[in-house]
């Protein structure tokens, strides 16, 4: 029997030290691993990884998308406004697809969306 446990997004980074520092400051995710060219970013039970890419033809930096689902989005939204990650105008309440959400881009143009289902 197969049991799916979770998925772990891996986002591209062109400068791992810079990007780890940015995520720690702007999102509260912390690097919990010391690996060459790779970072494991965690906050509570959430995890994603950053992988260094050199921006060459053989190793391009390609932007990705990550959606983080939460319950109780308003305190996190206010935290991210205070961190300077997003502006006060970024929260979208009761979207047509049944979510409250906000989003931003990291320094590599990866799109990060924080959302909660509102049914």
TrEMBL record:
Record keywords: Dioxygenase, Oxidoreductase
Source organism, top-level taxon: Bacteria
GO molecular-function term, one example from the UniProt record: dioxygenase activity
Stated name of the protein: Glyoxalase/bleomycin resistance/extradiol dioxygenase family protein
Species: Neolewinella aurantiaca
């Amino acid at each position: 029997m197969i049991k799916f446990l979770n998925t772990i997004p891996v986002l591209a980074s062109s400068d791992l030290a810079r990007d780890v520092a940015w995520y720690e400051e702007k999102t509260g995710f912390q690097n919990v691993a010391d690996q060459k060219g790779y970072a494991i970013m965690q906050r509570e039970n959430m995890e994603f990884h950053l992988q260094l890419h050199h921006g060459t033809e053989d190793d391009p930096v390609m932007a990705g998308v990550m959606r983080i689902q939460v319950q109780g989005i308003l305190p996190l939204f206010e935290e991210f406004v205070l961190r300077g990650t997003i502006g006060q105008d970024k929260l979208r309440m009761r979207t047509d697809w049944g979510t409250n959400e906000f989003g931003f881009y990291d320094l590599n143009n990866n799109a990060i969306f924080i959302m909660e289902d509102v049914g």
